[in-house]
Amino acid sequence: MRTMQQAGVAMQFPDEIGFIFNPCKIYLTHRNLAQVAVTVTDGTTTQEQTFEAAKGKIRADIRAMVQSCFDGVRYGRVEYGTEASSSGVGKEIEVSVEARNENNAGELEVATTFEFTVFYIWGALAVGEVYNGFRTLTYFRGYPFTVGLYNDSPNGAAIIGNDGVATNVINLGMQGVYDVPLTPDTAKGYYTITDFRGTLTATTFDDTYDLTFRKIGEGTYTDKVRINIVDGMEGGVYLRWINRHGFTCYYLFKAGDRQNQVTSSEDIYRNDLADYDESYGYQYASGHKQTHSRQDVLPVCAPLVDRETWDYLLDAATSPIVDMFMGYDTNGVPRWQGVRIQAGTYTKTSATLQDFALNILLPETPIQSI
Question: How far apart are CA 103 and CA 318, in angstroms?
Fold first, then answer.
């Protein structure tokens, strides 16, 4: 965490990068500190909240305020036709902290105001987990695909390599999380992405002491991603989801037998003064109203994946945003349908290769009632 001191008030606050579902804490201390007023804004949405001190100390978690700044983000909007586009899951958040002391008369007065910015990402990291580090991905040719990258500072750039030969430089522009499509698609076996200007640095999350992040890699020409190409895969179920790092992910699963779960409920209406039984006598003489509902479940499996890919696919089971590929429209634009993943237990064995299976809950099918 960063530290700052003004007018005798000491404050600890988050580093330059953070995740909105991890703790977003600020600490303030002063012998006369009584209250702080915190304002959080992304330029469009503004949230304000006050926190009371206990014995001159305040510990506040402002993650709920930061999360509200992401309410209007369209998470499924991915541009597949451009070199690189911002995914919208990262924002620079401005935070203002007004420290108020209690004077001898028992009145509150402003001691000082702290101001700082944090680049927050729509995600969450586990302890010791590396963000924006080296990854190995699989590209199923013929299906829409992008690579997620975090650019740490302005004028970032990445080098795209085809089969080990550098062929293209992609400019990433300002700080943010980017979706990078592989266009033009000319490689035969694999693609590589390397850091060109030292702006795709990796960070790791460590809450041993202060729930913060630290950079673990800097420099140029750092390997970031290897994308292995798989050709000739048709059929199956192609999913897209946002993982805990805020990156858009993709994978092609083999489909199992589709299950149709039908449930019903009945209500009984009795009215001896009306002709209900005569009107609806063809169904039940006692006057029943019957309603059905239908839930379609599609089991899918990724056979014999390695341990790194297994972890990669597990994020699909926990992501609140999962889409299923429905083909291309007449203009060649990918069509997606939002789906849910059925909750369950996923067991990772000690085997080098193992299957990864999950159940997709398709949108509920409307059913008539009578």
Answer: 50
Cis ω before 184 (30° cut-off from 0): yes
Phi/psi of residue 97, each to 5°?
A: -125, 110
The CA radius of gyration of the chain, in Å to the nearest whole number, is: 27
Burial (CB < 10 A; 0-12, 13-18, 19+), residue 91, is: buried
Nearest-angstrom CA–CA distance, 369 and 270: 18
Q: Going by DSSP bridges, is the β-strand pair 17-19/108-121 parallel, antiparallel, or unpaired?
A: parallel
> What SS3 state is found at 312?
helix
Distance CA 180, CA 160 (A): 10
Predicted TM-score (pTM) of the model is 0.84
pLDDT in tens, 213-255: 555 544 444 889 999 999 988 889 999 999 999 999 999 999 9
User: What does the block give as tokens for 124?
Assistant: 């969450």
φ, ψ (nearest 5 deg) of residue 251 = -165, 150
User: What integer pLDDT is reported at residue 283 of this predicted model?
Assistant: 47
